[in-house]
Design goal:
The protein has four helices and 15 strands. The chain has about 210 residues and is an alpha+beta fold.
Length: about 210
């Protein structure tokens, strides 16, 4: 539990570089095990000068956080609320941070089984291991300005991982044409679910 009597026991105390140490300590206590951040309802204590770039790099006050264990620690107390904003949450407080795209990046994929028995397992840049399926769907979004697709994997709560481009190529390699909602789609399967990527006829035109 957090000691509410300590003068630095708020995320809002982390307003300069020295305040980061206190923030680390609080996240460590909240982040042990699998913290139930979805059940916590602490008051909002302001925004932090913390940002997650599109490539998954975390910045604090404009400086990259280069310590991977620290980034993994902060990632365990992340929560995205219904307002669309992302917060660091402890049992007694929450502070807003900026996320340019998705908070996580899926950097590795393993495909096991075939057909309806296939399972796609992803590893994120912060150490989450997630099997795509009913509880963790994949979705594909048109990328503005490139005519490409950006795949996202649900990780937990409202948090997603952007699938890194090299992993996207692996994903496409295990794709197949599947009848989906009355239309032939190029799609991938995992844990009995079909995740459509693009209409099969569109893919053929692009490949011509």
């Amino acid at each position: 539990m957090f000691d509410e009597q300590q003068p630095d026991a708020t995320l809002s105390a982390a307003r300069d570089t020295s305040g980061l140490d206190a923030l680390i300590a609080r996240a460590a206590r909240a982040g042990k095990g699998a913290p139930p951040v979805e059940r916590w309802n602490p008051p909002f204590c302001g925004d932090l000068d913390m940002e997650i770039k599109a490539d998954g790099t975390w910045f604090y006050m404009g400086t990259p956080i280069g310590r991977a264990p620290l980034v993994r620690l902060f990632s365990t107390v992340l929560r995205k609320d219904e307002d669309g904003k992302t917060y660091l949450v402890t049992p007694v407080e929450k502070a807003g941070i900026r996320v340019i795209d998705a908070p996580f990046v899926a950097v590795e994929m393993d495909a096991s089984g075939i057909g309806e028995e296939q399972v796609l397992t992803f590893r994120t840049n912060v150490g989450d291991v997630v099997e795509a399926g009913p509880e963790h769907p994949l979705r594909f979004v048109d990328e503005v300005g490139t005519d490409g697709l950006k795949p996202y994997l649900h990780v937990r709560g409202r948090l997603e991982a952007l699938v890194a481009r090299p992993v996207m190529y692996e994903l496409v390699n295990v794709g197949e044409e599947v009848e989906f909602d009355g239309r032939l789609m190029f799609a991938v399967r995992s844990k009995g679910m079909v995740f459509p990527i693009i209409p099969a006829e569109t893919l053929k035109k692009l490949s011509a």
